[in-house]
Amino acid sequence: MHCFCMWKSFIALLVLASPVLAQERPTAYQALRVVGTKLDRALVDHVISVRGMDGTPQPAKWTILLDDPKARGGVREVEVANDKIVSERTPMREAVAGSLGATIDTTKLNLDSSGAYTVAHQTAAVSHVTFASADYLLHVVERGNPVWRVTLNRANGDSAGLLSYGANPGTTTPTRRHLSWCD
């Protein structure tokens, strides 16, 4: 009987700990640190984009696209999960052409994916929009500024809204023209 109560308590503890464990997934900046530590620090200065899908709030895996003249096609794609590089490939430039852009000036970054989630969550709450997960994209816009694009998803997979805001100092608040909600 005592053993049954211990198992019951253990299972209850696991259920309560699951949301906390999900929140401890690495952020985009932590994934970039892994690339710099495990591969080459210089690669962090050649990031084209950082993408994460199904974040609750952080995704289980980050996909980092790098400009790498030494790679076949000049592009390298690295996937990071649990502070480890889990995949690395060199796609042909044509295969990722829609994702290509200028490299991110990391000195302009001031808002990690955890902060991007906080802004998105607060904005959604004020607007009475509910969502179950978030997709992240950090990339550069035409003026060379890094921008977070956060897509909020409902539990059924439908989009609940899209927020886009700067990741550099002074532009962390979305404006109406960068904010759209789905019905």
The assigned structural class equals alpha+beta
Q: How many β strands by DSSP? A: 8
Count of helical stretches? 3
* Helical content (DSSP H or I, runs of 4+): 25-40%
List low-pLDDT spans. 3-22, 172-178
**Biggest sheet architecture:** 8 strands, antiparallel
- Strands of the biggest beta sheet: in what spatial order? 4-3-2-1-5-6-7-8
Rg, nearest Å:
19 Å
Which term fits the overall shape?
globular
Average predicted local confidence, pLDDT: 81
Order of SSEs: HHEEEEHEEEE
How much of the sequence lies in strands comes to 25-35%
Descriptive account of the structure:
The structure is a single chain. By secondary structure, this protein is α+β, with helices and mostly antiparallel strands. Helix content is 26%, strand content 30%. The chain has three helices and eight strands. An eight-stranded antiparallel sheet has the order 4-3-2-1-5-6-7-8, covered by helices on one side. The relative contact order is 0.13.
How are the SSEs ordered, and which strands pair?
Blueprint: H1 2-23, H2 28-38, E1 47-55, E2 62-67, E3 75-81, E4 84-89, H3 113-126, E5 133-140, E6 146-153, E7 159-166, E8 179-181
Antiparallel strand pairs: 1-2, 1-5, 2-3, 3-4, 5-6, 6-7, 7-8
